[in-house]
Amino acid sequence: GAKRDDDIRFRFFEPGMQARVQERRQLVADLHLALDRGEFELHYQPLVELVQNRIIGFEALVRWRHPVRGLVPPDAFIPLAEETGLIEPLGKWILFKACNDAIAWPPDIKVAVNLSVVQFAKGDLPGTVAAALAGAGLMPRRLELEITESLLLHENEATLATLRKLREHGVSISMDDFGIGYSSLSYIAKFPFDKVKIDRSFVAAASSQRRGGAAIIRAVAELCGSLGITTTAEGIETLDQLQQVVSLGCSEGQGYFFAPPRPLADIAALFNSWSQSDHSMH
Ligand code: C2E
Ligand code: MG
Ligand code: MG
Ligand code: MG
C-alpha cells in the first residue's frame, strides 16, 4: 500500500543510508572475490578438558583478511555470505581446510567446525563432510560439527535425517551457544547431541552472581550428564569463572582465560607450551 511505499522511500533517503547501501554492495562484491583470492583464514581456539586441564581439540573460527579493511570477524560477513549463497563454497572450503589442518596435529586432538543453517538446506552436507574427511585422511571421530538451535527451530525430517547421517559417519555433533535465542532443554533430549556448549552470557552471569546464570548452567550440565552428553562452558575469561563452571558440572571449557583464537601457525607453539600450571584452578 501507499503507507509502505512511503516508509521505504523515507528509509532510503535517511541520512547515511545511501552510504551504507553502497558500503554493503561493495562488501558483497569483495566477498565474491575473496575465496578465489585466498583471503579467508581459519584461526583456532583450544577446547580444554577442565579437570585435567588438557587441550582436547581446537575450534576453527573463520576470518577474512580484507586487503583494505584488515582482519574482518565472522559476524561481519557470515550473514552476508548466507544471504548471497556464498556460504556454500565458503563452508566447503572451511570444512576441507579444517580437516587438512587437523591431520598435522596429534591423533587424539579434535577439530570443531561451525556450520551455517544454510549448509543444511542446500547441497549434500554428509557427502561434503565425507569428502573433506577422506581428502585429508582424518578419522571421523576427530571432527566435531557445531550447529545452533536455529537449525532445530525450523526442524524438519530432512534436517534430522542429515544430522543422523552425519553421526552415522562417526562425526560428532555439538549444539553451540546453548541458552540464547529459542533453545530449550527439550532440544537436548530430542536429538542425540554429543556435546552442548553453554553460551558465554551464562558463564558471565554465573560469576557476577546475576540471577539465573548458575542455576541454568547447573540444570543443563545435570541433564546432559544424565544423557551422556558433554557440556562445554564458552567464554571463560577469569579464574573465578573457571572455578564456577567446574563446580556447576561443566567438563570442558573454552575462552580467553586459556587462549584467544590464534592463526594456524601459532598452534604448535601453543600446544607445546601448554602446561598444567599455567591454567591451574588452584
Ligand atoms: P561461536 O561458534 O560461538 O564461537 C565463539 C566466539 O566467541 C568466537 O568469536 C570467539 O573468538 C569468541 N570467544 C572465545 N572466547 C571468548 C571469551 O573468553 N570471551 C569473549 N567475549 N569471546 C570469546 P568469533 O571468532 O568472532 O566468531 C563469532 C561467531 O561466528 C561464532 O560463534 C560462529 O557462530 C560464527 N563463525 C565463526 N567461524 C565460523 C565458520 O567457520 N562458519 C560459520 N558458519 N560460522 C562461523
Ligand atoms: Mg562455535
Ligand atoms: Mg558458541
Ligand atoms: Mg556464538
From TrEMBL:
Residues 24-275 form the EAL domain. Transmembrane segments: none annotated. This is EAL domain-containing protein. It comes from Lichenicola cladoniae.
